[in-house]
Amino acid sequence: MKAAPGVLQIRDVEKHFPKDHALGVGEDNGAPFTDGLLPGGTPYDVEAVRADFPILHRPVRGRPLVYLDTAASAQKPARVIEAERSFYAEDYANIHRGLYFLSQRASERYEEARRKVAAFLNARHEHEIVFTRSATEAINLVAPSFGEAFLKEGDEVLITGLEHHANIVPWQMLRQKKGIVLKVAPVNDAGEVPLEEFNKLLGPRTRLAAFAQVSNALGTVLPVAEMIRAAHASGAKVLIDGAQSVVHMGTDVQALDCDFFVFSGHKLYGPTGIGVLYGKEALLDAMPPYQGGGDMIASVTFERTTFAPLPTKFEAGTPAIAQAVALGAAIDYVTELGLGCIGAHEASLLGYATTRLSAIKSLAIVGTAAHKASVISLIMEGVHPHDIAQVLDSRGVAVRAGHHCAQPVMARFGVPATVRASFGLYNTRAEVDALAEALQRVETLFLR
Amino acid sequence: MSETLDLRDLYQEVILDNRRHPHNRRAMADCSHLARGENLSCGDEVVVFLKIDDEGVIRDVAFDGQSCAIATASASLMSEVLVGKTPAQTKSLFDRFHALATGGVESPLDGMEVELERLTMLSGVRDYPSRAKCATLAWQTMLAALQNPKTQRSPK
Lengths: 448, 156
Fold this sequence. Notes:
The structure holds 2 protein chains of 2 kinds.
Chain A lengths: L6 E3 L3 H4 L29 H6 L7 E2 L2 E2 L1 E2 L10 H14 L9 H21 L7 E4 L2 H16 L5 E5 L8 H10 L2 E5 L9 H6 L5 E7 L11 H10 L3 E5 L11 H4 L3 E5 L10 E5 L1 H6 L10 E4 L4 E3 L13 H17 L1 H19 L5 E4 L8 E6 L4 H10 L2 E2 L1 E3 L4 H6 L5 E5 L6 H19 L1
Parallel strand pairs in A: 4-16, 6-7, 6-8, 8-9, 9-10
Antiparallel strand pairs in A: 1-14, 2-3, 5-11, 10-11, 12-13, 14-15, 15-18, 17-18
Helix pairs in contact in A: 3-11, 4-11, 5-6, 12-15, 13-15
Chain B lengths: L2 H8 L2 H8 L12 E6 L6 E8 L5 E7 L4 H13 L5 H16 L10 H7 L9 H18 L10
């Protein structure tokens, strides 16, 4: 097969992943199966971690579940499930309005969750944390609201060619409404956004740069600190889509100095229906509300409404109270495990998987950035990704097949779709082996 | 039940054969009807070409595009069973095939048992709802082509 540019033929693996080249945090050194010990000898008891996740003990299609779709949504530890259940069973009422015991208790729990998120991101103030429905909704809040406050026709928003549709479409909608110009920093053959190309597109009219910290389709980790510095130097604000990054590495919004940071709860081993927008106080204060309704007002008459202060100005209607509380439990969980340890475990798996899959000659990896999170996008010569995923499913191996809500990334690499295996804090080398064996079965079935 | 057996229901040998060597995968320059179809769930595209004679009988069927094994095998089979059929027969065959692929209610079918028999090899998809769209992509596109004579409009 003539591979598209940037599609790594497996025989090139050694070139792209030399033994002493950083694969993110950890490293596969070809050592025998060592789940339970991170590079450098730090203990990581993955079996104890797996025991925390009830669903991982459920057989699927008569086999043990091999869940390799954590980049789409992570499974939930018992603590998160229990946090949501016990909140409903013991503390539930609507928040902010009731003067009675349970409403006050629920309000405290909800605000306690906000404090946990603020600490998790190292935000300066709790009120810089706005709860949304998802990372997608958080970007959809910023686009029109920031746009209304700060953007005029002809102003530029800069994104990259690696973005999820959630960080493309809201800006296109704003373009439609306000006549802004959307610029896209190009992606190189390895699936990276070269800093010099990004910097070239920063101009006097660039008001905002919005980009993912980790590509959901390819796993590329972007040099966000440098990108933020460059954007700020040219006078632009910065939004980081952290949906794929907060799960792999620690986040410090003050150190990054980003102006906005968004992520979703369900990818962080928390519940669905809850997302987070962090925004710098001065910016959020200057931005108009994005939805009107209850909770977000100070006072309402038919003549005039005054809005509530942050963060409730942006939280119209009854929020996902129980989900916020359970997100707090998820943050406790990953914080106790340690994001450094989680990232090192995942990087070790990524290295092992990259090596292991090299035995399968018909496979090619799409996206070969020097710095990757634990995501591998694959194509197999002559076999459609859906057929691959179907065979994997018959063996209990759950992967994502498709365009991963990143069609421009697929177009960049000249493929309609890929199979994506993503590794989370509970995955093991044995599961990588199961993936490799299932892929060999695909070869036998379709390519013999 | 063994999962491998399930998979064999879906990927029967005859499906794999049709995928490896699809029949009538070609462009048809002298077609009378054509349409382009897309499976929105995966982005697969197919173009279906029909040659319908003055009596309203389908004389030739072809398809083009890259798609998964199920969609390719289904298009290949469709291109064979529709030759000699009228649009009305085609629609009733589609209804039965759709029921077969989705586990829906089967409408009565006048004749064409042989054709239906051949299509049953795709019935494995009914256990995989996400793949029913793959199996019916070429058929849905063919129905659009019936409404889209080449002389009046270019392909959608």
